[in-house]
Amino acid sequence: MLPDLGKLGDVDRLEGARLFSLGGSAITLGGVISGVIIIVAAVILAKILGRILCRVRERSPQKSTAALYVLEKLVTYGLIVFGVISGLSAAGLNLSSLAVFAGALGIGVGLGLQGVVKEFVSGLFLIFDRMVSVGDYVELEAGVRGAIMEIGPRATRIRTNDNVNIIVPNSAFIEDRVTNWTLKGDTRRIHVPFSVAYGADRGRVRDAVLAAARASPFTLPETEARKSQVWLVAFGERGLDFELLVWPTQAAVKRPAGMHAAYTWLIADALDAAGIEVPFPQTDVRLRSLFGREGDEAVEALGLTGRGQPRVGRASQVEESRSRPPSTNDAASELLTPSVDPMDDEG
Fold it and tell me: Model's pTM, two decimal places?
């Protein structure tokens, strides 16, 4: 059965119906429909390819994350721009004849949307400059600290170790000072302060703390350039002030608070096991004589220590600390088996 030629002619006339003229070009209904279909198809295709590349990036090694993120953005933005240009051409617009109009529009956009354009350009610089990349652990001058999860056209999303997402304008990474703790995928040396009481053997302090730090699973193996050290840095008001200098793993560097807490706990356990006293606020009163009595007799005369009550000495305290079972280091457990990894994104 032959099609109704009259109806086909009506469809052709409807598609060729002229709507208006713009820049010397006739805009028809069929051209507008074709242009919209092309633009919508390009946007959908860009989103599908973007999600595929995002999943590949999440499963890829840490070293290739930044490169895959740049590829993802290039493909997404490129498809959208190509789709828009193709759609406008299919609609019948002569883009070369709209140069003056585009220039005037650009001036209007520059004046009215300066902030948006500024953030968009800053985002492009961040993507291609790669001084900060997706996956880096950064600290901003304002105090924001966390892992970069996404660099968008307007803002960058940072996720803290407490799983809090913070939206930071892209220009903040260009104009302000930014500390990148994992630039080029490297680690860094940290300083963990601690103190011991005056009179402690400095050699025993060093050996005990270094042994604990080296045995930690989140301490990197030592090399000639990266060695764990213990420094005596000051004579404090209550004791000797030391610092443990250690090179942690990159995973530990991304959790600075937990890392410092874990090493502090290890140091405390090491000092307890070695019988080394940690200083605490106290006032010592030395009583030489009272009514002709000296030492313990003078103290008993004041009624501060009853007769027959055993006095707990330092030796018994050391022996008691050595006999205690190992304490649980929650910060170390979090570094080894984190409940929320700053680099795992829910998508």
Answer: 0.58
